[in-house]
Amino acid sequence: MSRKVAPVLVWFRLDLRLDDNPALQRALQSGKPVIPVYVRSPEDEKPWAAGAASNWWLHHSLRRLDGRLRERGLRLVRRSGPAESVIGGLVDETGADSVYWNRRYEPALVGRDARIKKALQARGIDIKSHNGLLLFEPHAVKNKSGRPFQVFTPFWKHCCQRETTAPVSPPRGRWTAPVEWPRSENVDDWALLPEIDWAAAFPAVWLPGEEGARQRLEAFLDGPVREYGNGRNFPGREGVSRLSPHLHFGEISARRVRSAVLESGAAERSKAARQSVDSFLGEIGWREFAHHLLYHFPDTTDKPLKGEFTRFPWRNDRRALRAWRKGRTGYPFVDAGMRQLWRTGWLHNRARMVVGSFLVKDLLIAWQEGARWFWDTLVDADLASNTLGWQWVGGCGADAAPYFRVFNPVLQGRKFDPRGDYVREWVPELAKVPDKWIHGPWEAPAGVLADAGVALGKDYPHPIVDHKSARQRALRAYQRLKGG
Which among 226, 454, 400, 420 has a CA at the least distance from the CA of 335? Predict the structure, then answer.
């Protein structure tokens, strides 16, 4: 390696983009040769190893990031192993005198990164870490008592009163490369793609990478953002952004999304449009809130924030859990959601709430089981958001829905899928059932089902529980908990 000009290593993590990437921007401004690095380290996998859907996305995102870098004269160096030894080894190999990265906030990684920083600084290496993931870093947001927030509304109100950093575009043209490139591992050898072909439909739905994120944002700004406040409730419509996997992998920054929405002029169209923009930015706020909670309450990935829920009398019903996973509960709105999840690696937020409520309340199965299934099957599986979502629906987390709020899967379907479009797409065996009966086919006259070609128990299952009885069972369990 040439030692004439010491290069700078840019350690990519959950920031797989060139645009608005503070660590990369700092490296480019240095004028030194830049060596982008991605490390697949075992500590990133503990205790929550990335799920199959996430690994599928990562495989394609890394390939596309490498392609974008090559357009600028660079390339992505991929290595596997403990991050401290890999980064330290690359410093030795390349003669780098600087290492820059964007911070992560998962509990297991905060301490690891601090150790790496200390070890490299002891060797005289210039270390710079940046905020490339969030609008507001968890350690910098506190309530009036100097403690972390546990309720969303005051948290987001406090955040909205603070200034945010504007997104920055990288310099154009080719960037300065090192004289020689260090060895790089082949991403194909990492075996990130699932062994079974369950992800075969993913490429038709998703385009991982920075370009896919840009396309998603543009499509959202072209229409859905103006009606987001109402449209986001209907899973059969294109009413949401579907940016969540791109945000999780850092293919687009929260700053860029917020800036683009505010600059789009959507909020100027009407009062309803302004409310829709505020509603969407509030969802960005929930993502911030999720990271805030996980940073300050690291045990919540496995334990309820509300400690009394550790005594909740959950049922160990593996048969019911399998039916829920496969979308065979006998409740069409629930089953449509679970099949959408399996086929596309994504689930509409309204459906997430309904299927979550069904698991923890109708079936009385612990929220951790749902969190694990989502973690393996969601392309946007994010430890902070997954934890917040499941503790919310389970009534045991910060600012959670009360446990006694039990979603009725039939009424939810009739309200948010009134014509049955969502059910017909994902539960095609019910496609010919009239709108009136599609969310409760067991209530339909026998002749109606016969005309629709549906035999309950054969073509489509009977409900695995009676919702009314299951709701009463859940409320009795909750009352026993509250009574000690």
Answer: 420
